[in-house]
Each structure stands twice: as structure tokens, then as C-alpha cells.
Design goal:
Helix content: 40-55%
Structural class: alpha/beta
Radius of gyration: 21 Å
Low-confidence stretches: none
Bound molecules: guanosine-5'-triphosphate, magnesium ion
Oligomer: single chain
Shape: globular
Strand order of the largest sheet: 3-2-4-1-5-6-7
Distance between the termini: 82 Å
Mean pLDDT: 87
Function: Small GTPase required for proper localization of RNA polymerase II and III (RNAPII and RNAPIII). May act at an RNAP assembly step prior to nuclear import.
InterPro entries: Gpn, Gpn2, P-loop_NTPase
Number of helices: 16
Order of helices and strands: EHEEHHHEHHEHEHHHHHEHHHH
GO cellular component, one term: cytoplasm
Protein name: GPN-loop GTPase 2
GO molecular function: GTP binding; GTPase activity
Length: 310
């Protein structure tokens, strides 16, 4: 008799630029998932990560060390890291052997922050696509620091990077605006938070930029970039404060919906989880309003604070 087919495994590939909060996310999300009763295995795929805050089930550092690569091949940290990823790609049997005994776990992959790995370099995409062949269904969770919302020009560049990442990585995808707890400290937003999360009419961003003498020179370039982003109509964000359980839960609902976990039978599904999978933009819109109220002062409050400072 043929053996039972191996169970499908689910998980998240946590990606995003350096310092966007990937490792902190893996810690917060793994604690949240364990509290929900999921068996979680966190896999560190970033050879540059030091002093991991979470319990690491598999560490790529056991296969290849960034310091050794830099010394042996006389590479800088960036080139060394790309080599490490190519080395992992060429030795995927090692990763498969490490993951196989963990089947039945929910996986979180803490990935390196080198942007090129997610926009045009082939190694990471090839690793993800191999994992899909092992029946491991991943959602790419792409973290972007919410700081970028405070500057329209930086927000356009973040939209471009997010779109390029979505197209290159080729996984079900969720973009997050991380560090929402800091957004008030980063500076004033020109628009409501839902403008950034839903990526609404970007012509307003262009108008905002036109008032800046430096960016007025680049108006045509920005117009073309914005048009490209709107034509694809793929990018949107979910705000995240990793300290806030409600915020993590909203992210998890989106992630579970993207990779199909919410339609599985691994856990007793709550009515709320099923509803959130079934509902669409209205749910996200109302939750974003809630977050706006939580983390951003209203115009009245801001005026009051300014009057007090005078
Ligand atoms: N206030 C606040 N700080 C955060 C949050 N997430 C991460 N940080 C801080 O941001 C810094 C970078 O976080 P990491 O989790 O190391 O970011 P990373 O993306 O793994 O960074 P690299 O591995 O270097 O690419 C750390 O000092 C974290 O404590 C957050 O939600 N709120
Ligand atoms: Mg990290």
C-alpha cells in the first residue's frame, strides 16, 4: 500500500529592506501563533542576523557563515550575503533535510534584507519556488517602515519597490507598514492613513511634490512611476504595530487568506477568522480607521497641541 501523502505545510516568508522589523516580526508573530495553539518553527535564512531573539529551529548559519565567505572570497557584506544565498540555493537538500522533521509546524522564514534579493536577484525566488515543490505554501510578508509615509517622494519609491518585489517573488503577498507605534514621531502625514494603505489616487502625491522645488524637476518621471503603479493596481498595505495583538491578528487574517491556511482544517476556525477571509475592502477600511485613531492625533488634537506650544 502506498504511504500517506505528506501533509501540506504553511508559513510566511518574511522579507523587506534592512531594519524594517523582520526579525522582530518573527518573534512577535511566533509568540502570537503559539498562543493560538499553532506549532511554530522559525527558520533563520539571514546569515547576517546575530543574537536571534526567537527560538530558532533551523539556522542557515550552520550551512554557511557570512564572515567566512567574506574572508575567503574577499567580498563585502552585500556581495558576501548574495553569495550565501546562492550557496543555499545550490544546497537546498540541506534545508529540505532540516525542514522535513518539522512537518506539521507552521513556518516563519526570517529572510535577509538585501533589496536586490527581492527585486531582481534569482536565488531567493528560486528557493521559494523549490519550497512550493515540497508542498510548503508560503505567503510573502513584505515589511516596509511606516516612516516612508511621511515623505511623498520616499512613498513613491516604496511603492515601486513593493510592486517590483510582488512581481519578482511570485508568492501570495501581503505588504505591511511596520512600526506604526512610531508614526507620530516620524512626522506629520500629508493625508489620512487609508490614503497610504489603500494606495488611493496618487495624483494627490504628485501635486504635493510639485510644491517642492527639488522634486518639481522630476515631475514627469514621478508621473510615469505613479502611472505604472496605478496600472498594475496591486500594491496596498496593512498597518502593523508588533506590540499590539489586534494589529498582529489583522495581519495574520490577511496572511492566512493569501496562502489558503484559513480554508484548511488544522485548527478549529473561529467565526471571526472565516468572516475576515470572506470579507474584503470594507473590513480593511474600517480597521484602518481604527488604527488611524489609535496612532495618529486628529487635526483638532494637533491644533490644540500647537496652540499649547505657543
Ligand atoms: N518601535 C518599534 N520598533 C521596532 C518595531 N519593529 C522593529 N523595531 C526595531 O527596529 C530595529 C530593527 O528591527 P529588526 O527586527 O532587527 O529589523 P530587520 O528587518 O530584521 O533588520 P535586518 O535583519 O538588519 O534587515 C530594532 O531596533 C527593533 O527593535 C516596531 O514595531 N516598533
Ligand atoms: Mg533581521
Amino acid at each position: 500500500m502506498a504511504g500517506a501523502a505528506p501533509a501540506t505545510a504553511f508559513g510566511q516568508a518574511v522579507i523587506g529592506p534592512p531594519g524594517s522589523g523582520k526579525t522582530t516580526y518573527c518573534l512577535g508573530m511566533s509568540e502570537f501563533l503559539r498562543a493560538l495553539g499553532r506549532r511554530v518553527a522559525v527558520v533563520n535564512l539571514d546569515p547576517a542576523n546575530e543574537g536571534l531573539p526567537y527560538e530558532c529551529a533551523v539556522d542557515v548559519g550552520e550551512l554557511v557563515g557570512l564572515g567566512d565567505v567574506m574572508d575567503a572570497l574577499r567580498l563585502g557584506p552585500n556581495g558576501g550575503l548574495l553569495y550565501c544565498m546562492e550557496y543555499l540555493e545550490a544546497n537546498l537538500d540541506w534545508l529540505r533535510a532540516k525542514l522535513e522533521p518539522l512537518r506539521g509546524h507552521y513556518f516563519l522564514f526570517d529572510c535577509p534584507g538585501q533589496v536586490e534579493l527581492c527585486t531582481h536577484h534569482a536565488a531567493l525566488r528560486s528557493i521559494f519556488s523549490q519550497m512550493a515543490q515540497w508542498d510548503l505554501r508560503l505567503t510573502a510578508v513584505h515589511l516596509v517602515d511606516s516612516h516612508y509615509c511621511t515623505d511623498p517622494a520616499k512613498f513613491i519609491s516604496v511603492l515601486c519597490t513593493s510592486l517590483a518585489t510582488m512581481l519578482h517573488v511570485e508568492l501570495p503577498h501581503v505588504n505591511l507598514l511596520s512600526k506604526m507605534d512610531l508614526i507620530e514621531h516620524y512626522g506629520k502625514l500629508a493625508f489620512n492613513l487609508d490614503y497610504y494603505t489603500e494606495v488611493l489616487d496618487l495624483s494627490y502625491l504628485l501635486e504635493h511634490l510639485a510644491s517642492d522645488p527639488f522634486f518639481s524637476h522630476y515631475r514627469q518621471l514621478n508621473e510615469k512611476l505613479v502611472q505604472l503603479i496605478e496600472d498594475y493596481s496591486l500594491v496596498s498595505f496593512i498597518p502593523l504595530n508588533i506590540q499590539d495583538k489586534d494589529s498582529i491578528q489583522r495581519v495574520l487574517q490577511a496572511v492566512d487568506k493569501a496562502n489558503g491556511y484559513c480554508f484548511g482544517i488544522q485548527e478549529q476556525r473561529s467565526l471571526e477568522a472565516m468572516m475576515s477571509a470572506a470579507m474584503g475592502a470594507d473590513f480593511h477600511f474600517s480597521s484602518t480607521l481604527g488604527i488611524q485613531e489609535k496612532y495618529l492625533a486628529s487635526p483638532d488634537q494637533t491644533a490644540e497641541q500647537e496652540a499649547m506650544q505657543l
